[in-house]
């Protein structure tokens, strides 16, 4: 068939009018060719063509051309003028939106189509619900009405494809319901509505539906893939915002200020109370430590003194020619008290001795026995109960440097406590000798101490750290004549005490027999010998032999003129030292002497004899 040639009515081959270049083909009519009269000579946009029912003409006003195509009952054209073309009953024509109209103009020559379409139009119901009738002002459509309202004259039918899935829009976006790429293509050159403005939907009758409300700004915040992510904490709850953090900081600062105020107020109250109590606003009252427990460690000086003082006594001696003060300590519960011989010596045979105890009680005492060679004496008090004997230690266990405590009554100051250390051991000292015949000279293998000892301390105990007696304070080194004396010289840190092991033996003998025994070698010494060692004299007292016949020395083979240089391996340098070393033992003890005779050294063993004391 040639293009542009009219086809007579009833011809089985039907040619649709050609669509001008640039016009958009409606869906479903692609492939039809436009008619030769599509453009029209006058440029009014009218399209002519033929169909099975006759010729037709569709007009396209210049306002807006929405869609052109073909239909089984004839070609058609939809127009969207700027103003709505209402029908007689006030409703917009089917298939139009408010503000637009669609007019269909049939060719005058298409009488067959008009006759056939009139009854069909009258029979079809109006999509709005009311039957539609033809009138002069409202021409009938060229085809029968669609009861289901299929496009382009109504809303999508049940067989129309579903619109694409709409994702949640962001807060700044507005979704146009039903907007599809096909709809955009159908509108052609018509201007697109504002994306931010709400879209007015239409009902099947063309009535306006409520505008699509904008989604809530936070409706999709927690799961919108395009929205900015919301930070979460570890427990799954959203992290606090800036305002919440600022509020939390403000609350923390307020709470801290309240706490500081409470603490400051409490501290101020305490300080104020203290100032008021201590006279901060009135008379001056100096701060002072509160009461503390009176107990002390048993090995401290205070602990030792507290334990020993009840057993220490002060002796006041008064004789016909002299008087003096000394110290003693309780030996047993029977009232025996040990002291120095030179303390009780002024009383003689007719003097008076009184004993004052630590608690202040005073009792008269009598001499049980005394020995000038050891400078020891024992007195006894009667009628006194509750006596606390002083525990005795072992002087052989004492080491140089051990701490000691001395208790006495220096210058009649009873209960005086001093402390120091053991400065030396086995220090040979002599005291007395005021009589001139040597009968009052004492020889002591003494313990030396730096604990202050003064006149009045004589006879008092020297204690170890466990409160046990290790010595009896007897003498001090005087600066007057350089000898150890029991005079009134003051302490220079050189005190001497009789070892308790020696004092114990003598005290037992004095209590039991009233006299003490002395260990002896049985020789007479030359006290004027200036050489090293102790030399045996050439003659004894009262022109007797220098070596006592039958004595310990005679039995051991000692001869006059022998020089004894050592006792039990310890060197001696004078006769006094030999006497001291001998008296440090008991009678019957075995000694080993180092003897030099005619320039030859020899060793002699002997057993000590016994002699009565004075």
Uncertain segments: 1-45, 61-68, 78-134, 171-190, 192-207, 217-221, 482-487
**Total beta-strand segments:** 24
Number of helices: 8
Distance between the termini: 181 Å
Largest sheet: 6 strands, antiparallel, barrel
Mean pLDDT: 73
Structural class: alpha+beta
Helix content: 10-25%
The global form is elongated
> How do the strands of the widest beta sheet line up side by side?
5-6-7-10-9-8
Estimated share of beta-strand residues: 15-25%
Rg, please?
72 Å
Task: Please provide a brief summary of the model.
By secondary structure, this protein is of the alpha+beta class.
Commentary on this structure:
By secondary structure, the protein is of the alpha+beta class. 16% of the residues lie in helices and 23% in strands. The chain contains eight helices and 24 strands. Strands 5-6-7-10-9-8 form a six-stranded antiparallel barrel. A hairpin with a 6-residue loop joins β15 (469-477) and β16 (484-485). The chain is elongated and about 190 Å long. It starts with 46 loop residues before the first strand and ends with a strand. Mean pLDDT is 73; it is low at 1-45, 61-68, 78-134, 171-190, 192-207, 217-221 and 482-487.
């Amino acid at each position: 068939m040639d293009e542009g040639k009219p086809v007579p009515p009833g011809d089985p081959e039907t040619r649709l009018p050609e669509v001008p270049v640039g016009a958009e083909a409606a869906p479903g009519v692609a492939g039809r060719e436009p008619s030769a009269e599509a453009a029209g000579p006058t440029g009014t946009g009218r399209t002519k063509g033929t169909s099975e029912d006759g010729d037709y003409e569709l007009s396209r006003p210049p306002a807006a051309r929405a869609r052109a195509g073909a239909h089984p009952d004839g070609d058609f054209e939809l127009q969207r003028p700027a103003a709505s073309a209402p029908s007689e009953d006030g409703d917009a024509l089917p298939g139009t939106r408010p503000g637009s109209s669609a007019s269909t103009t049939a060719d005058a020559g298409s009488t067959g189509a008009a006759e056939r379409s009139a009854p069909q139009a009258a029979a079809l119901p109006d999509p709005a619900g009311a039957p539609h009738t033809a009138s002069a002002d409202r021409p009938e459509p060229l085809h029968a009405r669609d009861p289901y309202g299929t496009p382009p004259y109504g809303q999508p039918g049940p067989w129309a494809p579903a619109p694409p899935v709409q994702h949640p829009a962001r807060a700044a976006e507005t979704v146009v319901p039903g907007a599809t790429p096909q709809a955009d293509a159908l509108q052609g050159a018509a201007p697109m509505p504002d994306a931010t403005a709400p879209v007015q939907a239409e009902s099947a009758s063309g009535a306006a539906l409520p505008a699509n409300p904008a989604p809530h700004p936070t409706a999709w915040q927690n799961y919108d893939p395009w929205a900015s992510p919301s930070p979460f904490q570890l427990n799954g709850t959203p992290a606090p915002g800036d305002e919440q953090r600022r509020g939390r900081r403000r609350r923390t600062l307020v709470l801290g200020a309240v706490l500081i105020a409470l603490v400051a107020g409490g501290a101020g109250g305490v300080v104020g109370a203290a100032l008021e109590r201590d006279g901060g606003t009135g008379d001056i009252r100096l701060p002072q430590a509160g009461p503390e427990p009176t107990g002390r460690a048993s090995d401290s000086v205070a602990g030792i003194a507290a334990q020993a003082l009840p057993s220490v006594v002060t002796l006041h001696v008064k004789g016909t020619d002299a008087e003096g003060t000394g110290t003693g300590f309780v030996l047993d519960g029977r009232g025996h008290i040990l002291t120095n011989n030179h303390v009780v010596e002024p009383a003689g045979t007719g003097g008076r001795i009184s004993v004052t105890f630590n608690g202040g009680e005073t009792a008269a005492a009598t001499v049980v026995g005394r020995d000038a060679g050891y400078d020891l004496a024992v007195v006894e008090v009667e009628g006194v109960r509750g006596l606390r004997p002083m525990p005795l230690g072992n002087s052989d266990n004492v080491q140089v440097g051990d701490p000691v405590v001395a208790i006495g009554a220096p210058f009649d100051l009873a209960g005086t406590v001093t402390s120091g250390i053991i400065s030396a051991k086995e220090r040979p000292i002599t005291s007395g000798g005021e009589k001139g015949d040597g009968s009052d000279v004492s020889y002591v293998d003494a313990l030396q101490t730096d604990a202050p000892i003064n006149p009045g301390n004589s006879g008092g105990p020297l204690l170890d750290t466990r409160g046990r007696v290790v010595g009896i304070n007897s003498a001090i080194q005087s600066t007057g004549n350089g000898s150890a004396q029991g005079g009134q010289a003051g302490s220079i840190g050189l005190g001497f005490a009789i070892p308790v092991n020696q004092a114990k033996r003598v005290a037992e003998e004095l209590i039991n027999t009233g006299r003490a025994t002395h260990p002896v070698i049985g020789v007479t010494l030359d006290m004027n010998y200036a050489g090293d060692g102790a030399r045996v004299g050439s003659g004894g007292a009262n022109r007797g032999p220098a070596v006592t016949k039958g004595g310990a020395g005679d039995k051991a083979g000692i001869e006059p003129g022998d020089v004894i240089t050592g006792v039990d391996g310890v060197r001696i340098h004078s006769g006094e030292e030999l006497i001291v070393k001998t008296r440090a033992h008991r009678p019957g003890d075995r000694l080993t002497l180092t003897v030099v005779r005619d320039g030859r050294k020899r060793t002699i063993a002997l057993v000590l004899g016994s002699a009565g004391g004075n």
